[in-house]
Amino acid sequence: MAPRRAVQLSLKKPTYAVCVVGAEMLVNVHRGGRGRGQCRVCVAGARGMLSAKLSSGHQRPRDLAEHLARDVPRDAKTFRVSASSKVEVLMAYDPRRVTEPTGKAHWPLDANVDVVISVDTASKDLNDLKVKVSYFKHQEDDPLGHSMLYLTAVDVSLDVDSSRTGKVKRHRGDKKTWRWGPEGHGAILLVNCDKDSRGSLEPDLNRSQLVSLDDLQDMSPIVLTCDGPDELFDRHKLVLSVSLSDSRRVRVFRARAPGGTSIFDYKGVLGPQHLSYRVERQLGEREIGFCAEGLTFPDADFSGLVSLSVHLVDTVVGMPWHRALPEVPLFTDTVAFRVAPWIMTPNTQLPLELYVCSVTDAHGSNEKFLDDMANLALKANCKLVICPRVENRNDRWIQDEMEFGYIEAPHKSFPVVFDSPRDRGLRDFPYKKILSPDFGYVTRELLFSGASSLDSFGNLDVSPPVTVGDTEYPLGRILIGGSFPKSSGRRMAKVVRDFLAAQQVQAPVELYSDWLSVGHVDEFLSFVPTSDPKGFRVLLASPSACLRLFQKKKEEGYGEAAQFAGLGHKVKRSINEMLADRHLRNDSFHVQSCIDWNRDVLKRELGLAEDDIIDIPQLFSLKGAYAEAFFPDMVNMVVLGKYLGIPKPYGPIINGRCCLEEKVRLLLEPLGLHCIFIDDYLSYHRLQGEIHCGTNVRRKPFAFKWWHMVP
């Protein structure tokens, strides 16, 4: 409820005031002192009342103090209020101190009784509503005097999609605050980070004018109600405003004429360099439409909340001395928006598009790999997008370059690609090729240092929805890799970490990945969908599981079966040799301890049980202080629904089959998954990467609405 304005009455002449529909006004009937609970309201309201009287044609009073004096008959003890039928009169009092009168009895002229009036419809003419206050010495006496108040009711309201239904509806409740949850309220603003005009070279938000009428669909509608006598708006103005800090984060457009059919019919009225706008109201115009776009995502210095206000201002028109008084806002209505966060999608969401790069190096092209990806995408009913060499400049690591996500409001949703600070051969691809109509773009730049390996987005993942104790994460939790706590190792850039945390809806968890040469979380973990109630499993690379498997095969008499059989350019290693290799075993024990530390973090931060984790056999070896996969890293897979594109490990062949592949099938296929092993050795593994690093998947957004959660 907005603060009540107060109006002071006079016995000598009528008082004229403007009353806003739905806003309560305090009628001051007291002789001296202040009415109950009106200390601040009365003083502030008296100033507004003075301006209202002056604008209605009254002569300027000789002295402000004289005007503010309480004008009540000297011997008055009681009073009575009567009003036009369209004026609602409420007597506000303390029942512990005042007894409500019955019959024809009058109210006591007591500081504990306030007169509050309101109206629910706009006036047709100026001063067409009346309130009369009569003063009495005793209950049966003739009145000692009367005060007349003439009101003009104006309907002013700023409305947005506070109910989050996709439509603007009139809202008389709390519009100034924004609340999370299914019962919450407050409108949502999309960052207008797509490019709706194909002729444009930059995102729509970078331009202060519309570039396409389609751009309006990305914006949140706003409706300003301004109903009342046209003459009233000759003496009052409506001003739309935004704070200086919020002006950098939101831009508001207005059509020059209702239902504009050209981009030139729209002009920006609020935003950077424009903190206020005097609304141009046409005769008889009752509703004026605006639309708003977000200019930046939540970040370390921005909570995501912005507010817009409309003010009804008395201009004190026609008075030669009016410059002595500032313009007085008689009423203010404020609405709150939250900028929609950027949301990642986990492997459990259905795949829509699979991105890969066509490259050529000393070993030739990766055409065989592209064919394998095409077959995998066909099985998963997923579109394949191949980035040609001219666009990737022979950079195949498309997962490291970017991450797909989306933004959503009740009226619109579209995908947004997050461009990493990595900036190698693929650095222009997200901006020049993915940014397009209804496909947005966001990035964070490193201003004072170069990017490290951990800033690549192979080091960025997200879990499926999880519950941790009593806390639900219906959109999952972001996972990033960094150094061991309290150590001085490598971490993802702070500007990226801050951005991810500021989105609020997928609270990040930092894992320990600095033990790896490349340092990415996708080298030791992945998520796969399942059809059971849990809905997913976590796959963790496990040197211990691999050594146990090899030991079992040795005991079964297959100790001479060799790793890397069939690879002419790679030295074969028998199971016996690998088990006897003290350095390889010690390296594996070290790596297992690093993965086990992450295992505990995942169980704690994602609410996992041991049965939710599957150990995938995988050996690592140390190159200096950092670990690399000893054979193609099977955890570094691409997940397309139930179809898994897994790096072919070239494990020991036993009875005509790779024992590593057989073990992985045994672990995953009972869950309804299809394991498809793909030869990526020359194209990817020898370059310290695998299939996940060389692919990227855009997935279907969550059905769950982010504004329904409570972070």
TrEMBL record:
Location relative to the cell: Cytoplasm
Catalyzed reactions per annotation: L-arginyl-[protein] + H2O = L-citrullyl-[protein] + NH4(+)
Positions of the Protein-arginine deiminase (PAD) central domain: 154-314
A GO term for molecular function: protein-arginine deiminase activity
Domain Protein-arginine deiminase C-terminal: 330-708
Gene3D superfamilies to which the protein is assigned, alphabetical: L-arginine/glycine Amidinotransferase, Chain A (3.75.10.10), Protein-arginine deiminase, central domain (2.60.40.1700), Protein-arginine deiminase, N-terminal domain (2.60.40.1860)
Active site residues according to the UniProt entry: D400, H520, D522, C693
Cytoplasm in keyword set: yes
E.C. no: 3.5.3.15
Pfam family, one: PAD_M
Keywords: Calcium, Cytoplasm, Hydrolase
The Protein-arginine deiminase (PAD) N-terminal domain, residue ranges: 1-31, 68-152
Cofactor(s) it depends on: Ca(2+)
Chain segments annotated as transmembrane: none
Cellular component per GO, a single term: nucleus
Homology family: Belongs to the protein arginine deiminase family.
Name assigned to this protein: protein-arginine deiminase
Protein species of origin: Heterocephalus glaber (Naked mole rat)
